[in-house]
Design brief:
Length: about 240
Amino acid sequence: MTDRDEIFQSKGRVSDFVFNEEVARVFDDMVARSVPFYPEIQRMQADLAVDFLPEEALVYDLGCSTGTTIDLLTRHPRCPRGVRFVGIDNAPSMLAQASNKLAGPVAEGRVLLRDADLDQGIEIEPCHLVILNWTLQFLRPLHRERLLGRIAGALRPGGALLLSEKVLTSSSRLNRAYIELYHRYKQEHGYTEGEIVRKREALENVLVPYRIEENVEMLARAGFVAIDVYFRWFNFACFAAVTQG
């Protein structure tokens, strides 16, 4: 069982957020209490994902963290047994947690976990599905379109990218309202006002969200021909982007 997220209870100096061992230990609790409708998004995503998977498909999870998404897909009743998964993350502590969670599929050869930095560029084999859950927002903006172009180029005809991100709107008034609603959400899930403020400060220079239309335009420039928002909660959105079939 994951530890409870109490990282930002400390009142000391706030440093930039990093995915270190301390974060990895509490990450599953952190996202469950910080990402609205997280379990439902994972279930929706898994149901959508398997529709793009033939028997011998290859799936990439970029920024796989502790392996929750791959775990759900490997156990999905409609996921073909011949599907292989590659999970990539640049945090060894996250990959250690994923290795434990996915010990069975890793031993069977269904899952491969790799340490790589998306900001530095990665090679992606021809594949049928790529997942980017709350990962693109942590990449430097100048590297994002390059990664999306590489994903689109690697996907088989009719393949899909499933992308989840924090988002902005073009209205400063609505942005403020959404942020306030998100803070209330986190308080309802056990975070104190101090924890919320300190985490926001830690993420300020690390997580850079785009507007929904900016993400859609970037996906289109990368080569995706069908793009849709399949889930949204105020300043969180999930996109499905499909290549030419």
